[in-house]
Amino acid sequence: MQERKAWAFNGFVGILLVLLLFVMAGVLGSNGGTGGIVGALVCLLLGIVSITGFQIVQPNQGYVVMFFGRYLGTLRQDGFWWTVPFSLRKKVSMRVRNFHTSQLKVNDVDGNPIEIAAVIVFNVVDSAKAMFDVDNYERFVEIQSEIALRHIASYYPYDTMDDQGGYTLRANPDEIAEQLQLDLQHRLAIAGVKVMEARLTHLAYSAEIAHAMLQRQQATAILAARAKIVEGAVGMVQMAIEKLQSEGVVELDEERKASMINNLMVAIVSERSAQPVVNAGSLY
């Protein structure tokens, strides 16, 4: 069902018409006679019935107008209006709202248990769909948000320990948020709801594997740091030997080069301060 505009006109004009009916009822009733009394009763009845058609609409609110079970339209423009008397009018908020999901425990694509939560920013754009196509659109948004969040969490890994590429939940929050928003918008279109933003607010390994994953991350970081240190140390040793040879400070054969390289690598790579050893004799 698609939303359409309900029939209505200015409520202040409606008040004047109702007052006119009451005045006519008084005039006809004062004239006496059967015709006058009948006319007065008719005008009085029309005036009383017309009173039920007044409705105040506040900004970013809508009223779904139904008449004996039939959808007549929606009042969305703010102001004071007069619409179909005896109609049932249900309020639907068009304001932007936030919904924060609970922390869900799910498995990522690698099977690791993780905790995840998100905040959803949405508003109603089609009051007819929100009112008639789903039972309770607010509850519908909550349930579908959790389903979409579980789906996204199970589609991507929490993190990757190598350079395989691809999106991860931790390293690509903007891309994951965009995918979550698209998935959720597809699910909520039936309820006339527009998803303005969907973003992760909580992401962590579950308690039972958090310590093990932390150790794994630390080990990976240590290996990466060691590789960088060794790479820099090799460059420094190469530069030192080339400088000594180019300036003719000392003549180094292959054995002396090996000994010097060993001493320099130990001094540069070691985490502790190097202890110098003074050689008082010959290397041979």
From TrEMBL:
The keyword Transmembrane helix applies. InterPro entries: Band_7 (IPR001107), Band_7/SPFH_dom_sf (IPR036013). Residues 52-217 form the Band domain. The chain crosses the membrane at residues 7-29, 35-57. Keywords: Membrane, Transmembrane, Transmembrane helix. Signal peptide: none annotated. It holds the Pfam family Band_7. This is SPFH domain-containing protein. It comes from Tumebacillus amylolyticus. The lineage of its organism: Bacteria, Bacillati, Bacillota, Bacilli, Bacillales.
